[in-house]
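Re: your question from the hallway

Yes, I did run it. Sequences:
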Amino acid sequence: MVTFKFHQYQVVGRALPSESDEHPRIYRMKLWATNEVRAKSKFWYFLRKLKKVKKSNGQVLAINEIFEKNPTKIKNYGIWLRYQSRTGYHNMYKEYRDTTLNGSVEQMYTEMASRHRVRYPCIQIIKTATIPAKLCKRESTKQMHNSKIKFPLVVRKVRPPTRKLKTTYKASRPNLFM
Amino acid sequence: MPFKRYVEIGRVALVNYGKEYGRLVVIVDVIDQNRALVDAPDMVRCQMNFKRLSLTDIKIDIKRVPKKKTLIEAMNAADVKNKWENSSWGRKLIVQKRRASLNDFDRFKIMLAKIKVCYDAIPVCCCLIFPISLLNFLWIQTRTPLEMAQSNIFV
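Structure:
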């Protein structure tokens, strides 16, 4: 299995109890980060924007990593995101086909970086969902919804089986036909 | 030159890179343009990039993402193991593996066997090469070393 850069965490936190508010409201958030420390930091970042509470007058009650329930099943993921471009903020909806949600989130970050030059700090994931095949909007995911899918691999990249066997010069030109 | 080996559900492929190198797997579903869900009787179903797979000629009859039991039955019905081991590609890989696992005594035995094969084939070869080599040999015998150096035999 691939090791993911982005892990999904559930962070639960609240403001610290005070004389005026004995039992402050508890908030829970699901977010993606590379590790737990960053997840907690991101939690406070979002909570600050939504409620009048900061890390200095709040506490994290629980942080748990969320793992994929069915990592061997292929799913269509839709991701709604808000990102900051050079000129302003935009919303976006992207679809990915992957086996795990973490994998599709990683795909999303790399695609945003390559297609729009948007880096990780400038992306906020609004919502993710598993989309049934009928409701997919993008052609690139819909074209894989074929139970009798069949295509040839057009160019075969000849690769040595380990990096150690790589050589700069080869005696003959490679045969690219599959 | 049309394509004969397609990426399709049921195509048997050989892993040619990475941890699972050398394993025969079955393409069980296609994730997207670059990746496939891949399964084999003795491993957990996982995703693999097509760059790591070499497609073979063998294809088995399965539906999209079958259960492990169904997959094993289909592989036995299509007799993948025997077809692979009897194909020229499969046989070459078996020979390579055998050669890589030889110890010094085995290599000694092979050296003797090769010499024996050559020795037994001498009568056959002689009929073909003897006439020409004999003439060359006689010509070389009649030349002095200086003439040999000036001649263009070894150019």
